[in-house]
Structures are given as C-alpha cells and as structure tokens.
Amino acid sequence: MKKTKKKKRTHVPLRMNMLFFVVFVLFSCLILRLGIVQIVHGQDYKREIARTEDVTVDTSVPRGKIYDRNHKLVVGNKPLNAITYTRSKTTSQEEMLNEARKLATLIKKDSPDDLKSITVRDRKDYWIMLHPDEAKAKITDAEWKKLKDGKLSDSDIYQMQLDRITDKEINSFSKQQLAVLAIYREMSSGYALSPQIIKNKNVTPKEFAVVNENLSSLPGVDTTTDWERYNVFKSDTGDAVLGSVLGNVSSSKEGLPKELVDYYLSRGYSRNDRVGKSYLEYQYEDVLQGQKEKVKNKTDKSGNVLESEVVSKGKRGDDLVLSIDIDLQQQVEKIIEKELAKNKPGHRFLDRAFVSVMDPNTGDLLTMAGKQYVTDPKTGKTVLADYALGNMTTSYSPGSVVKAATVLTGYQTGVIHPGEVQVDQPLKFAGTKVKKSWTPYGMGPISDLTALKRSSNVYMMLIAMKIGGQYTYVPNGSLSINKLDAIKKLRYNFNQFGLGVKTGIDLPGESAGYGGGVPKESGNVLDFAFGQYDTYTPLQLVQYISTIANGGYRIQPHIVKEIREPSEKSDELGPIIDEIQPNVLNTLSMKSSWIDHVKKGLWEVVNEQGGTAYGHINKEYKVAGKTGTAQGLYDGPKASEYWKRNELPPMTWNVTFAGYAPYDHPEVAISVVVPWSYEGTQADPHVNLEIADQVFKAYFDLKKKREKEGLDKSNSTQKVENAKDAKITNSSTNTSSSAQ
C-alpha cells in the first residue's frame, strides 16, 4: 500500500501581520511628517536656522582735552595698552573661568590694587566654583528635602552655602588662583557683547605681544589702546595745579558713580563708562564726553558673533579752553606756598590762603589759587596741598575790605552824601562794650574818603545806625535802631556787589557764604557794616571789587573761555564751537559819580601816607584796593578740640585784601584771603599785602614778557604751546600719537 505524503501549508500568524501593519502605519506617519516639515514648513525652518540678531555696542572714546587761555595743554589723555574681553550671550561661567585661567598664564594680574579689588563675596563665589562637592556638603539632608518640597529656594540654599564658608576657606587661595579670580571678576562684570577691560595699567610690551599671538586660542579676548586722564602740571607728590577745581573722572573699573547711575543711564550711557565725577569735569561732561563708536554685531540664534560692522565712527570729546592763565596760576601758587611757609612759624592756626584773580571787564578768571596744610595719610607728615576749590566753597569774615560797599550803600539809601564828614570816636551805648576803630581814642572828624583810607569802623557804624533810623549818637544812650530794616537794606545792597549771593561761576558746589539771619543784638548790625558778621568767599570778594572797578557792572565769573572741536593735528586746536561772552548779572543803581568818588578812597588806601596798605604794594602797578582784618573765635579744623574740652577757642584774625589795577584803566582784580593768620595781640604779619603785591607783580611781569614776544591769538586755529610735554591719545581709534 502506497503512503501519500502530505504537503505542509505555509501561513503568517495573525500577530505577525499586526506587527507589520503597525510598522507600516508608523513609517507612513513618519514619511507624512517629514513631508510636512520639508514641503510645508521647510522654508520657515531654514529661515529660523539662518536667523541672526543685530546688537549695537558703544565703544568708549577719549575725553576732550583742557587747555589754558594761552593754549597750553593742562589735561589730556594718556594712551594705555589694554587687554579686553567680550563675552557672547551664551558664554557659561565655566567657559569664562577657563579663559581666565589661560589668560592668567600670559599676563600679571596680582598687583596689590588687583587683589584689593577682590571682595569677600568674590572669594566665596569663587570657592564654591572650585569646591562644588564641599559646598554641597554644607547643606544638610533636611535642608535639601526642604528645597525639594518647595520650602526653600535655590537662592536660599546658595546663601546658606555662602554664609557657611569659613575665613580659612576664603583665604586658602594661592596667588595664582587669586590672579585668575581677578581676571574672572573683570570678565563677568560686563554685559554680553560689550568689551570689558581686563587690564589697562602697567601692561608690558611682552604681555601685549604674547596675548596678541594667542588670540586664536582665547575666544573673546582682544588687545586695544585705552586712555587715562592726565594732568600735565601734576607734581611728583601727586598734587596737581588747579587739581581740586578741574575735578576727577571715574575709572574704567568704577564706571558710573553710584549716586548718578540712573541719571546717566537715562541719557544713553553704559554702566562702565567713565564720566566726570566732580567740578569742571562734571560740569562740562556733555562737552568732554564725545560721541562713542557704534559697532553692530550680527549674532546667530546661539548668540555667537558672526560679523561686526562699524555703524558710526567715534569722535573724542570737544576741547575746553579755560580763562585760566596757567603760568600766572603756577606763580601765584608758589607765592602762596612761600608766604605760608614764611609766616607759619609762631602762628599755630595759620593753615591756608586763597587768591582769586579776575578780569573785571569780562569775568575771565585768570587764577583760582589756594593752598592748605594737610596731613599726608601715607607718611603722617604735614604737607601743602592744592585747595583752589576753597575760593568758591569756603567763606570767612572779611573785615574792612567791604567798607566800599558800606559807603556806597550809605549814598544809595540817602543817609550820607559824598564827602560827608562824621566824627570817629569810641561809641559807648548803654549796657554794651565800647565799639571803636583800631585807634584807641578815635580819628576825630573825617570824610568818607579818609574813612576808607584809614579804615574807620566808627564811620561805617554811623552809616548803619542811620540806615536803621537812628541819626544821632548819644554817649551812654541806647542803640535804638530798627535792626530788621537795617540789616535787610544793608544785605540787599551788598548783594548787588556779589556779597552774600552766589557769583554764578560755571562750576557746581559754589557757596553763597553765611548770612547770620536777623541779628540777636542791634550792635551786630553795626558789626555787619565793617565786615564782622556775615561771611563771604574769596570769589565773592573779587566779584565785589570788580563791580566797583568796572563802574558798577556785576560780571559773572567763568572758568571756561571757549569750546573747540577736536583737531586732527596734534599740535593745533580745532575751530571754535562756542565762545563764552561776558554776562552782566546786574548793574548797580548808583550814580557813576558816587562809584568814582569811592574809587578815589580805594586809591588813597594804597598810595597815600596813612592808607592801611601804604608802603606794602608797589606804586608802579597803580593799584587801588581795600584791606581787611576781622577778629573772631577760631572756627577752623582744630576748633573741635576746644569744644570737646568745653573750652572756647582763642580769638584769631582773618586778613584780607581786594584790589584792582591799573586804577585809571582796570584790567585785573584780585582778592586775597588768609584766615586765622594770627591770634590775640600778636603782631599783624601783613601776609595779605605781601601776597597781593607779589601777585600784581607776577601779572604785570607776564604781560610785559608776552608783549615782547608778540603773542598773537587772532586765528581761529591756534598752535598748542606745550604739545611735546605730554603723551596723549589723539583720536578714538586704536592708534596713539604724541601729546598735544
């Protein structure tokens, strides 16, 4: 029997078919999705990938320069080799730290100043970066659980770590690690895409070259030429001619001053911009700052810089030409130094002196000189420092120097007339001490001119009495004046000369002096009339005497004479943008004949025997003026020592002088103020007149010298006289040039 062999039937199980079907569907979906991405949205995604962002960055430019009236450079910009770092938007902390480590092997960043700038917080942050495991261990398991449960935030945990870092740990860094930290903190302190200066002082040629050679391995690092403000007339001790008036500029590290951050940011400044912090540099910030170079950086989606383009070239700030004569300024400062040194022995409170010199016809300040004895914090020694600023920020009782204003006020109020004679005798009022002039028994009947010449206090007191409504002096009688009305009239008229009001100088921080309000005693009104009640600044005194010298016009003093465009040539000034014109603040509502009459009295003070300045000032200069001596309790820097001991400070004397020359055609006016020059019954050293005589001599000697040299300032573009005396940057580019 034959056996029939069965054929095997082949078939795919159902589960396999289902698997194939699912795979088919998934591939179909994938193909469909790819089609949508490539066909429907392909162009959109291509544009997204290629998308760039334009970011404009401002690059700092050098500030404008400052010249004196004869076009000598006073303040310029010294070029500095600089190393900078610009981080991208996506740069991480770790990447910056790595860059800092590389850079620390190429440059030195461990000077005392560098290490001093590292704060305790910087050290703690750095320690956490270097010791992440140890930092994590400072947080307990319970605290980590609270973080997980939302009861603590990441910032809370980080603050706990900071608080628990010990002093030993933050002081455990090596010098090399601190150098890395010093570099890292500079890198991280700037904004993305904004160049941040890593080092710009004492960059050696070797450092500059080696960094340049390694730029390809240092992403974001670059080399450039930076600038530093430079005073040409700065001494080896660090004291600069007119330094306190010129003011300061913030450093690249300091950036915008904290108190002015919002103000400057609202005006388009960056936080790390250098700006004027005080006085002239601050007052003329808009002029000196210049226009920053704008660079547009094109970045990709990740923040990487693809391309940089200069949108607008930078332009350094405009230049200032001062009214100051720097040669006269230097000579006057030397005069003050010499006279203070000569008169200081035996006069324990004598520590300062001031001189203001002004053109009475234009308001040009030719000199603002001041010196003060201070203690050097480094050496502990007493040294003479610049205190030119004191001419406008400090005030003192001026004494008889204001008597010309008192006499003219007497004319104006109608209580006396030119040439009127009054009796100078000791005045004794009921219940008060005797009030008198400097002569023990009085000067007898004297005219107004003699009262000026011989400096009669009594004549001035009689004027004040009459202004207060009391026309007759009765020995041992009462002083029954209307003190409120009298002081108001006196102060109002004094204000017209510039006494007791701000002069309007183009600098911030000017003092108006001190007005003692309504006097407690009627006798204080009499004191006011001869300069022993209110206080005035040296600058107010020179404005006052200028108002008399020019015939009754109170001229606003100014320290800036011109604003000029920066020049491309290193030895020339650019064309004038603005020229400061004389500004009359007010005109005396007094007869010119009255003013001329008083000027005769001021002439007699200096040039006739019996005058209080006679024999002390060279007649060659044809000077007219008025001396002043004011007595009062010492109120200088050492007064607090007496008050602490519940003691009254001793009585001291301020000596002053205000005058002008030549008498017949005034071209220069000066004020001299020497506070606390001597005390008690010591002999008057006449230091005020010794200084005044030498200042007039210095002025006229310089004038003669220049006339012989035939100086000509007629061109709009002038040569810079001391172009070779300092090295400064010439433009906003990375190249530097010799000094202007």
Automatic annotation (TrEMBL):
GO terms for cellular component: plasma membrane. InterPro entries: Beta-lactam/transpept (IPR050515), Beta-lactam/transpept-like (IPR012338), PBP_dimer (IPR005311), PBP_dimer_sf (IPR036138), PCN-bd_Tpept (IPR001460). This is serine-type D-Ala-D-Ala carboxypeptidase. Residues 707-740 are annotated as: Disordered. It is a single-pass membrane protein. Residues 354-695 form the Penicillin-binding protein transpeptidase domain. GO terms for molecular function: penicillin binding; peptidoglycan L,D-transpeptidase activity; serine-type D-Ala-D-Ala carboxypeptidase activity. It comes from Heyndrickxia shackletonii. The keyword Membrane applies. Its EC number is 3.4.16.4.
